[in-house]
């Protein structure tokens, strides 16, 4: 099992990142929040460390990359629920941060869970029933992000993430300015990116 991958960021696509390890480019499927912390500028030598989870199928080996260990743990726990595979688990983490997910499951918030594409009311109720006592309380698993500790300032990361998702540079800059008061002394890039996306979707 591959627990994590560390190396220069060779490429970033809308759904994945490629890290060079020992002369080999490993492709990791990641959420937009994780990708927003990685610079797509090839050749800059930016180093990143991403916790990983390998999904083995008869026809494929797929590596999923995560912002931090907490996100990885949630990804693997989600797949223990009936009907939740790796793609749906990743979709859940793309929409909901680990603590938001814990709050939704712990509070039996079906409406929040059904915001995830592919999850209906019955699916949300099943996830709540099977995972309520396993995901833990909000804040219980948060740890420092190994990826964010080696990247550029959060403003650049959020802006690059927004541009990579199709927004103009001008819109991205405006959104970054709007969410700046939320940054605080220890900004969480994934949270700020989600806030910026929510702000832009209301425009």
Topology of helices and strands:
Blueprint: E1 4-12, E2 16-21, E3 24-29, H1 32-35, E4 47-57, E5 60-65, H2 69-78, H3 86-95, H4 98-106, H5 110-113, H6 121-131, H7 154-164, H8 169-179, H9 189-202
Parallel strand pairs: 3-5
Antiparallel strand pairs: 1-2, 1-4, 2-3, 4-5
Helix pairs in contact: 2-3, 7-8, 7-9, 8-9
Percent in helix = 40-55%
Output the CATH homologous superfamily of the largest domain.
5' to 3' exonuclease, C-terminal subdomain
Distance between the termini: 44 Å
CATH architectural designation of the largest domain: Orthogonal Bundle
Integer tally of domains: 3
Anisotropy-based shape = globular
As a percent range, the share of strand residues is: 15-25%
- Low-confidence residue ranges: 143-152
User: How many beta strands in the DSSP annotation?
Assistant: 5
Mean pLDDT: 82
Discrete helix count: 9
CATH C-level class of the largest domain: Mainly Alpha
- As a whole number of angstroms, the C-alpha radius of gyration is 17 Å
* Estimated structural class: alpha+beta
- Strand count, sense and closure of the main sheet? 5 strands, mixed, barrel
Order of helices and strands: EEEHEEHHHHHHHH
Strand arrangement in the largest pleated sheet: 1-2-3-5-4
What does it look like?
- By secondary structure, the protein is of the alpha+beta class.
- It folds into three domains: 4-65, OB fold (Dihydrolipoamide Acetyltransferase, E2P) (Beta Barrel), CATH 2.40.50; 69-131, DNA polymerase, domain 1 (Orthogonal Bundle); 152-202, Ubiquitin-associated (UBA) domain (Helicase, Ruva Protein, domain 3), CATH 1.10.8.10.
- 41% of the residues lie in helices and 19% in strands.
- The protein contains nine helices and five strands, in the order βββαββαααααααα.
- The protein has helices at 32-35, 69-78, 86-95, 98-106, 110-113, 121-131, 154-164, 169-179, 189-202; strands spanning 4-12, 16-21, 24-29, 47-57, 60-65.
- The chain has a five-stranded mixed β-barrel with strand order 1-2-3-5-4.
- Strand 1 and strand 2 (16-21) form a beta hairpin.
- The chain is globular and about 45 Å long.
- Residues 143-152 have low confidence and may be disordered.
């Amino acid at each position: 099992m591959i627990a994590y991958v560390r190396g220069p960021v060779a490429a970033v696509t809308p759904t994945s990142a490629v890290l060079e390890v020992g002369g080999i480019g490993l492709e990791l499927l990641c959420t937009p929040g994780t990708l927003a912390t990685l610079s797509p500028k090839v050749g800059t030598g930016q180093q990143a460390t991403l916790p990983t989870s390998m999904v083995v199928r008869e026809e494929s080996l797929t590596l999923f990359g995560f912002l931090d260990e907490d996100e990885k743990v949630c990804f693997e726990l989600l797949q223990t629920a009936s009907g939740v595979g790796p793609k749906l688990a990743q979709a859940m983490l793309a929409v909901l941060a680990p603590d938001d997910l814990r709050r939704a499951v712990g509070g039996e918030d079906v409406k929040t869970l059904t915001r995830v594409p592919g999850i209906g009311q019955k699916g949300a109720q099943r996830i709540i029933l099977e995972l309520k006592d396993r995901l833990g309380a909000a804040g219980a698993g948060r740890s420092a992000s190994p990826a964010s500790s080696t990247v550029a300032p959060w403003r650049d990361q959020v802006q690059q993430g927004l541009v990579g998702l199709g927004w103009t540079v001008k819109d991205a800059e405006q959104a970054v300015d709007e969410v700046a008061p939320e940054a605080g002394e220890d900004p969480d890039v994934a949270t700020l990116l989600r806030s910026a996306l929510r702000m832009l979707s209301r425009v």
